[in-house]
Amino acid sequence: MKLRGLFKGALLLTLASLMVAALAVVGLLGFIYYNSQGGQNWDAPLQQLSQTLTCEEGDYTFSGEELLGEDRWAMLLSEEGQVVWSCRKPEELPDQYALTDVASFTRWYLRDYPVLCWVRQDGLLVVGSPKGSIWKHDIAMETPVLLQTPLWFLGFFLLALGSVLGVGWLASRHWFGQLQQTRDAARSHWIHGVSHDIRTPLSVVMGYAAQLEEDPALGPEARRRAGAIRAQSQVIRDLVNDLNLTMRLDWEMQPLRRELVQPAAFVRQTAADFLNGGMAQGFEVEIDLPSTPLPSIQGDPFLLRRALNNLLTNCVRHNAPGCPIRLGAGARQGQLVLWVEGGVLSRHESPPDGPALEEDGGAAHGTGLRLVAQIAAAHGGRAVFRAGAPYRCEIWLPLARQ
Amino acid sequence: MAYRILIVDDEPALQAMVGEILARAGYETQPALTCTQALEKARAWGPHGVLLDVMLPDGDGFSLLGQLRQVRDLPVLFLSARDEDEARLRGLGLGADDYITKPFLPQELLLRLRAVLRRVYREEDAARLGRAEIDWGKSALRRDGREIPLTAKEFALLKKLWEARGNIVTIDALCGALWEGPLVGYENTLMVHIRRLREKLEEDPSHPRFLLTARGLGYRLRREEEP
User: Fold this and answer.
1) Do A287 and B217 touch (CB under 8 A)?
2) pTM
3) Segment B17-68, tens digit of pLDDT
4) Which chain B positions have a beta carbon within 8 Å of A237's beta carbon?
């Protein structure tokens, strides 16, 4: 979900950047083209201008004042380089030009005046503009380089595209990361706050209910009701604890304190703690361990005990007033399997063949089983929940490297 | 002698409830709603132990623990709504005797408080199991006026079970109390020691009343008052 959002964000940002870059390049090229000689087609007015200059028996008549404009000037050179006609020609310009002068100004400037030339039958028409009004340039390129130009352009385009994609990805990752952090912190504070605030009132409820439950002055019915309040308060307490831990595992806030765990001793201690806690009144807990020692695992004993406790508590809650509960461990397919089974099946019968549920225990099973799946996953293993009677849950864990 | 317990918590309802539980169990209690009140009462009243909340209106329980210890070296149990590992480890790391997370059952509170007080004040329980009396000083049992000596292993075994009486102690924990190093393969030897201890403790070792087996798990020393 997070990855998809990140990808969508990066894609959007990249497309937006590409669009901006493309518009900027097209706009720049269009501007240059429109304002250059090519875009404005200087040749056409020059030709028209030339047509307005006519010669009859050596006298020149010019009717293109309007076309020439107010700030431009014009002159006509004969084939010998002599000025034979002019209109507003600056005084600093000479009346006679050598071949080298003509070769220079036709391409560049005439004494800093940008000029355009038009070849006529009777000579060369030169039209000048004010100094600094036009920038002239010349491009010369070897043919092989010109032929390579498309490749160079493609290379630059791909480089630019890569840069834009990279920047877009980094920017979106940073942005989404910040957004996610803010959201996670808000959720974490909320859950911590709620769980913290619920604990003290729940202590009062549980405390008084437990006292009433054992109060000999009350009748059996009142004590039974007090017992129900105490039991349900414990359910809420477990739910709050599970919710907190599941959140911490979800957001990788729970450090895994791994140590070498001996499965048989661990299973025995967990079962003993569960029975000593008085949760399993009326239930018979049977331990099923192989006669040969089981290989060790690297795990967080606190989390693994929590997972087994959740499975045992689940068995007790769903099998009141009592039933045999089997807790065991075994090595299978190079992994350690811890399992809890609640129901009436004897230990010598074949394992139950009920349909496997989703690995998180199914949504209907609430936070407790989801937490078991999370703890298994945090250890690089998995949890398998089998529906049906008896209910069986397995935690598969990788063995420690020898 | 009734132990005096100072309850430091800013929630009056919880104060009242814990006070009632402890009073019923035979303790004397005094409430303190703030750090200032707690320090005043620790000086003036001289409690034997303190139940301490972490979050208080004029400070935090972690700092108060150090201040209380400067007044008197007395056992302190945290009673907190903060269940994070960091808070628990910080509390215990600062030298608290126990850390109980809210919400808790009255029985759990009483058991843990009693365990701490017994440990700190070296309370000698009346060590009696039926007609047998345990003499910890002589490492022996006395029954019908007759003294029955215990071997070192039997004594260690009985002590471990007595400390957790009423609860199952696993085979692994018992082996850990008797031997050092890897404990694999000691189960059969443990069974021999249990059998010999039963012969000395029980009237009918084949049908033990006190040293009970928790099948597949370990053993349990039944309390005298258990049905």
Assistant:
1) yes
2) 0.62
3) 999 999 999 999 999 999 999 999 999 998 999 999 988 888 888 999 998 8
4) 103
